[in-house]
Amino acid sequence: MSVTTANTVAEANTLPPPSTFWKRFSRNPTAMVSLGILLLITLVAIFAPELAPHPPAKSSLRAVLKPPSSLYWLGTDDLGRDVASRLIYASRLSLVASVQALSIALVIGLPMGLVSGYVGGWTDTVITRINDAIMSFPALILAVVIVGMLGPSLTNAMTAIGIVYAPRIMRVVRGSTLSVREEVYVMAARATGCSDARIIIHHVLPNIVGPLLVQSTVLLGHALLAEAGLSFLGLGAQPPQASWGAMLGTAFPYMAQSPVPTIAAGLVISVTVLCFNLLGDGLRDSVGRARRSGE
Amino acid sequence: MNALRYLGRRAVSTVPMLLLVGLITFLLIHITPGDPASVVAGENATEEAIQEARRRLGLDKPFLVQFVTWLTSVLSGDLGTSFTSGKPVTELIFERMPITLSLTAGATLIGLLIAIPFGVFAATHRGSWADRTTILVTSMGIAAPEFFIGLLLVLVVALEWGILPATGYTPFSEDPIEWARGLILPSLALGLGIAAELTRQVRGAMIDVLSRDYIQTARAKGLSLFSIIVKHGLKNAAIPVVTVLGLQIRRLLGGTVIVEQIFAMNGVGSLAVRAVFHRDLPVLLGVALTTAIIVLIINLIVDLSYSYFDPKVRAG
After folding, report:
1. Which of A23-27, A129-133, B59-63 ranks highest by mean pLDDT?
2. For chain B, does the N or the C end have fewer beta carbons within 10 angstroms?
3. Inter-chain touch A233–B262, beta carbons under 8 Å
């Protein structure tokens, strides 16, 4: 995880009331623009069949590697398929795959972090050490190795990315749980005889939503990037599936003859990841008690 | 004496982490669907080869014994045999490691060459348009994938301008100039993202250092801004920057997987990708373990460098 991300998450705190949160968030133009672009991409993904000018898989051998034109906005690929339509459809796979990877990371990382931070002692030491050991592996290499073990496919690639990013979720959840555990309301709940499970679910979990939301947003960007990387290498989305990374991978060998498909796919990936990062920064600035006390 | 004790303590504390990294690598064998022995022995393996793999992995023995058996062979340098090339995995990795390490070193160098001047400039011109531009450009640099930067570099610098080679790697011993020329584009592809992250760190750390009392004193004594930055600023700002650099090297090692493919470099990353397609598990496990060990060694060096930059760390 980048240090920007670490700071982003560390500086976030509990979630303020929705109205305060939105007031702060809407005052941040960068975050608002990022949210707008991400919403637009999501809408494009949802309404892909209506928006795409051509069927994404329709190939025409008479229109191979055509430059951009009024008929083919971003030109055609090596099989004569419309690049713009494929990019529009690929947004579905890329976004869904990122959410899938994040969900896996949450399913593994969230309970581990809650238990580690809340129980403490040896349990915490063991989980933290295992976490640190997993994080010693370069993320992409570990993902490649896991895909190698499970076999190349988009589902396996996203499972691998989910496993690789789970320690990042765990680390943030643990850190937040450690500080929430010492809060007066948690002690009060304990004093009134609440069970640990009830305290974790009803008191700890709602109060770590802020940092978790920030980390999840940033990780969505990372997952999208990792999916693009693995699909570019041919280890993720398999033909005829199209994700942005897979499109970049298939456009790359023909880059000298037709550079537009490569540039278009690369730009879409970069802009989406940038928006997730900036949205994460904006969320960090909008949650957190330090800011709240100042208002 | 204190420094030596610190060094020893820090080195010893890496050992449990090494064991855990080994354990996780070993566990990876067991996430493979099906019988690990037949998977490790390869797709068309004979029954004899499967039995041999089972014996080598110790699969008929208790888990702990299996792990110790595996660890003993790893410690003696035996990471198994690649069943696509028939060569020992250790040999395959060591053959390719100079390429990956040259690439990582080149990217780190580019990262530092860009980050230090730009970060210092942004910090000393805080709030100016140059500072704001630096923040914007670095945000974009962090988000831009290595493979996209790499593809653009190939497209413009190699194919359009034709000034640098688009693919291949020349060993240093063969031709040092071609070695350096061949490394420029892939190192840039890998290093620009790191440069963006490091520039932000240098800027942040430098802003913090420049607000300290000793800097104000140095200024009051009439020292020029340049000598204040060089003599006092950089060394004191180094700890957070070195920490990030350590973390970034892990990202660089991961990034080599993609950059090596784009620039057709036969490094450890390419070895891993090819191993996925051939289901060459010994190679995959070997690459995972070796790169994790490199990361741990770099973490150790980063920790030890703290004591150089800040004697308080050494004193304990």
Report:
1. A129-133
2. N
3. no
